[in-house]
Structures are given as C-alpha cells and as structure tokens.
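pasting for ref
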Amino acid sequence: MFNGILIDKNDSGYHASLQPISEALLPEGDVTVKVAFSTLNFKDGLAITGSSPVVRKFPMVPGIDLAGTVEVSTHPDYKAGDQVLLNGWGVGESHWGGLAQKARLNGDWLIPLPKAFTAAQAMAIGTAGYTAMLCILALERNGVTADQGEVLVTGANGGVGSFAIALLSKLGYRVVASTGRVAEHEYLKQLGASEIIDRATLSEPGKPLAKERWAGVIDSVGSHTLANACSSTRAEGTVAACGLAQGMDFPASVAPFILRGVTLAGINSVTQPKARRIEAWERLARDLDFALLPLISHEIGLSEAVDAAPKLLAGQLRGRVVVDVNR
C-alpha cells in the first residue's frame, strides 16, 4: 500500500481525497518509480476540484510532474536506483500521475534527473519552468535576441511567468511583466522584471494592429491578452503561446502575421521529443539562478494538496507549489 490522492466519479458525485492505495491497482508501465516530490499545477487544481473535465478516466491520481527513484524497470534506459523526472505525457489526466508515493509509467516519458538538481529543486521548476524554457527556445530559434528590444511576459505571477522573467532577465533581455496583482510588483522586480504593466491594458478587446513594442512575447493567458500581444509585437518578432488562463479563444486578426511577419509559436509542453526535453532541462541547469527557487516556490505536504487546489485556481497562491508526497 502507498498513499496518494485519488479522484473518483460515481453516482454520489466527484470526489478527490488522500487515501491508501494498493500497489496492485497501479496502471501498466515498464518503470515503477518511488516518487519523492510532485507539484500542484493549474491543471492539477482543475483535476482535483473537478472545475474542468481534465480527468479522462476514473479513478485517477493527479499530478502532471514527478521526480523520484526507479524501483523496478524493464525499460532498457533505466534500472533500479536511477533518479528520474517526468513532465506531461497525459499523467494525471489519462494515466495515474505524481501526487502519490508510487507511480508506474512508460519509460519513454521519463528523462534522467539532471545532476544539477535535487528532486525537490526539479519539482520547484516542474512543468512551469520547463514550459518557460521551451518558450525561450522558440524565441531563440526565431532569432529573437536581447538587443532587439523588450520581451513581454503575461501572467507574470504564475509559475510559467515567474520562470520566464527569471530566465529572460539572466539571459540579458529587458523584461516587461504583465500582472493584475499590484501587491506583487516587488516580487516581479526581484525576479528581474524591468517594468510592470497592468494586465487590464491587454485583457480587453483591442485593435487588429497596435503600436509596435515587443521583440518577443511569452504568453500563458490566451484570449484577448494573446491577441493584443500579437498586435503590438514588432516586425519579425515572435510570440510564444503556452497557456489559456483567460480563455481558449483567440479574437485576433491576421494583420500582425501578414503585415509585420510576426510568428505565433505554439508551445506544447506535454509530448515533446526526448531530445528537446533533455535540451530544455540542460538549459535550465545552465541559465536559471537557483537562488531564486525559494522565492518562486514553496513546499506543502501531500496531505495539504486537496485543500490547496481551489486556492491555486483562485489565484491565491504565488508561483510554484511543490508537494512532498511523503508527508
């Protein structure tokens, strides 16, 4: 038996609770991992509260991230004792995830835990920091350099936004952070934001083409915010879109793309090829100031995760929530 959060749906409704789970119930997979740390992401909050139909089958263990130690493996790349890391691949949605003390997984979804990180540090970064780095790689592939102008980061107080600011700043970019939380301005400055703007300037319907400002954008908000970011991106600039906190809609015009040559780069953090996953984590090891991790993240126990989920969705928790699954 091991402890985990189990989500179920039956005639009496939708339930998520911490409970003992039999190892015999673990799903199929060629690697069994003793989980050390997981995380509470926005998607996990949706799954635990049932606010959105994230969970594809029941019962389900949520948790789209995990780091731990291989217990049993028939996969050629891993053996017992190996330290491993996972982001995405539908865990916590269609396959049992990391908010439990054990997980059985497809070894192709794993990568070795980089030696630069402890398991706790890797989960402080988690899918949020990994997604931020995928966005930066997309900007770089499209030629956005630090000398070309400002980079806008929307949803700045969230996990992706926090890491995007910290990484871009260390790489020499001038970062403008968009947030609705006036009280968090000092936090964003500490991460490296040069300027902070009110999200209301981007979140309402705007013009098909606005005044050119951004050399690049990392957007985790979507909807009108993404449309306005595109309309004010400079010629040949790139917008990396990775989230939909404001909405899945995109009420925009083709004008920025055909009149200014703006590139809209979609960022899929769930099913990246292994080589790119490893590249992203190697870059995180090199380009992230580890001293910022305590500022960006805080740790809770597995027993606190269910109660923390609605607070996360309500925007009451800053940055990253790391979950120690053994307390």
